[in-house]
Amino acid sequence: MKVMVGGTFDPLHIGHQHLLTRAFMTAGLGGHVVIGLSSDSFASRKQHPVRSYDVRFAELTKWIESKKFEATYEIETLFDQFGSALTQDFDALVVSFETFSVGNLINEKRKAMGKKMVDLYQIQCVMAKDGKVVSSTRIYKGEINRYGDPVSEEEFAGTESCKKE
What we know:
By secondary structure, the protein is an alpha/beta fold. The protein has helices at residues 14-27, 40-43, 53-67, 100-112, 136-140, 153-157, and strands at residues 2-7, 32-38, 72-78, 92-95, 119-122. 34% of the residues lie in helices and 17% in strands. It is globular, with a radius of gyration of 16 Å.
């Protein structure tokens, strides 16, 4: 099965890992996952600073390779919310609560273009220890770390800085 998933993945947190794992599990043995990674220009729309594409690409690749998933993968650059999802033939799109509406829009546009609609798989949000959703924004605000644990002021002061581009 060919599966698509996309995001900025900065920092790569437990929610992203859940999303990506679902994509690889859905693709399965012999399947293929296309991961759209937001370009620096597209990522600049975020409320928080975002590290460079190259840094995010390296972190994403390192994590995927450490998991030894059975499906193959490729990473493509996203310059908008659709990427190649409007033109490529694929079977499923893995989305989060935040991106479910984009998945529906992709299917609407595919249908209008005479292309096959794809299955949408929505993952549940991953909750932090404080009962709120794990998100990159909360991590950059210093509320939690990438695993959803509370962050002390000392830990937050030592985090890698990044600039909004």
